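Consider the tokenized backbone below.
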């Protein structure tokens, strides 16, 4: 890609960044303050890395200005205006990402957009879920996390009584499965991990689809294992030790566990192709 095209794109990104500066600051604040969305701050770095990986494979892609990009930018700015008028932070966030998509279309054309489709979709993961969607997901995930922990503990031979989202482990120990234990934070992080693995290597599209779909049950399994292990610590060592375990050791080990499972899945799919 000629340096002139890169310079024009950098200039357009700078203009977009200047125009969206208040929105960008708010987005960064959400990443830092809301743990459920903290993984979003990794997404722009992963996207840049993915583009860097694709540089060589994109040398034969025709680059041309596509004026439909102007219409796309006009549409994203209408969405932004609607977000301002409706006091919808999510609309403003999504309009920012979609404006970047439209800028790529304008300066490089539809062929480049098609080649970078996965990267552009990945950028949408940087945007926090709308508040209503977030609230709708939390309740069912919290309930499911509680039920899965009960099943896991029962399989290990422990007698557990459940009252709502509270697990009664014995006469002295009980553990509340609060919203932070719902697994939503883990689910978001694992989807980003799965998307990153999709870029690292050349494999058929169907394998990438399977990998992305697998992040959902892997996240659920990891969260269940974390809750079961925490409940056992609660039972043996008390509330304080259980809370330290949940937020410390158990949290640190779940990401390597997920990466290992997903890499194992990729290995199995590659082996299946060669046999």
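A designed sequence for it:
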């Amino acid at each position: 890609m000629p340096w002139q095209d890169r310079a024009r794109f950098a200039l357009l990104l700078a203009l977009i960044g200047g125009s969206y500066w208040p929105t960008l600051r708010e987005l960064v604040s959400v990443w830092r303050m809301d743990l459920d969305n903290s993984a979003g701050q990794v997404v722009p770095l992963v996207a840049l890395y993915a583009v860097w990986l694709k540089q060589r494979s994109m040398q034969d892609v025709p680059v041309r200005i596509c004026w439909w990009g102007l219409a796309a930018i006009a549409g994203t700015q209408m969405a932004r205006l609607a977000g301002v008028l409706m006091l919808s932070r999510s609309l403003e966030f999504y309009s920012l990402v979609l404006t970047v998509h439209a800028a790529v279309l304008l300066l490089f054309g539809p062929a480049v957009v098609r080649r970078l489709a996965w990267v552009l979709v990945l950028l949408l993961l940087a945007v926090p879920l709308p508040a209503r969607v977030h609230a709708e997901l939390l309740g069912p995930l919290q309930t499911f996390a509680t039920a899965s922990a009960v099943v896991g503990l029962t399989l290990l031979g422990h007698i557990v009584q459940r009252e709502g989202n509270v697990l009664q482990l014995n006469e002295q120990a009980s553990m509340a499965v609060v919203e932070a234990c719902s697994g939503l934070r883990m689910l978001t992080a694992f989807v980003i991990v799965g998307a990153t693995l999709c870029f690292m290597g050349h494999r058929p599209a169907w394998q990438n689809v399977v990998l992305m779909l697998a992040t959902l049950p892997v996240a659920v399994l990891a969260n269940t294992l974390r809750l079961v292990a925490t409940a056992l610590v609660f039972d043996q060592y008390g509330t304080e030790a259980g809370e330290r375990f949940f937020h410390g050791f158990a949290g640190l080990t779940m990401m390597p566990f997920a990466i290992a499972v997903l890499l194992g899945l990729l290995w199995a799919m590659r082996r299946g192709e060669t046999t």
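The CA atoms of residues 33 and 75 lie 30 Å apart.
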